[in-house]
Amino acid sequence: MGFRLAPSAIQAGYRLEAHDSVGSTNAMALDRARDGDPGALWITALQQSSGRGRRGRQWATPHGNLAATLLTVGDLAPGTAATLGFVAGLALSDALTAIVPEARVAIAADGADTRRGRFELKWPNDVLAGGAKLAGILLESGLLADGRFAIALGIGVNVVAHPEDVPYPAISLRGLGFQGDAKDLFLALSDAWVDNSRLWNAGRGLQQVRERWLERAAGLGAQVSIRLDGRVARGTFETIDEDCRFVIREADGSLLKVAAGDVHFGAVASAQSD
């Protein structure tokens, strides 16, 4: 299909299984693990017919967009494995910066000023361009017969098109003027993953990952809202803590630490989280 691994990824022992169209690269990766695959396997496709997002939401992948899943098999604790999503965000941000260095972003959520060449990371699993969603990341796992965990780290990027019927701004690389394709992006991603996974170092380098992630965090210091247990929590996005939980400073000054949820910023927070 024309997908290629970067030389650094090949040297590090990664393998590639490339497709034109699949049901779900994440589902395929977990199937490979159950069939005995040892991991370090990238599965890529230009289209998914039954891709998934967080909380079971459908993630449509028109032909020409990138669907990529990295299968990891090992003995990682679930909490440590969950932080791989932050590694993926950094790797994708690095790859995008490498191949779209002069991107002019013309869309911004809440009417905010746009920035040049800026890809931001939205907790926990999105990559934004000027406030508009460009990519999403989904981790799924399964317990194997030998007691090890298989982790499917799925990455979906709007390369040639973005969804129109979504309640948030979205954008594609084509809309940013990028003239390459999903294969070019994957080549850069497979290279950037090697560096960022080495920094993470099976969780031992999580503090460095956290610091790099915060440098690119969308909405840091801004007003946010998040729905939790039947209520909407509002406050200021303070940081992410040492476990990569989302930290909000509420109006009374207290800190709220959130492990999972959908975050909204500014005007979008008021409009969508009530």
Automatic annotation (TrEMBL):
GO CC terms in record: cytoplasm
Domain of life from the UniProt record: Bacteria
Gene Ontology molecular function, alphabetical: ATP binding; biotin--[biotin carboxyl-carrier protein] ligase activity
Domain Biotin protein ligase C-terminal: 220-265
Reactions listed under catalytic activity: biotin + L-lysyl-[protein] + ATP = N(6)-biotinyl-L-lysyl-[protein] + AMP + diphosphate + H(+)
SUPFAM superfamilies linked: C-terminal domain of transcriptional repressors, Class II aaRS and biotin synthetases
Pfam family, one: BPL_C
Enzyme class: ligase
Domain BPL/LPL catalytic span(s) in chain numbering: 42-158
Keyword line: ATP-binding, Biotin, Ligase, Nucleotide-binding
Listed EC numbers: 6.3.4.15
CDD domains in the record: BPL (cd16442)
Residue ranges of the TM segments: none
Name recorded for this polypeptide: biotin--[biotin carboxyl-carrier protein] ligase
Organism: Nitratireductor pacificus pht-3B
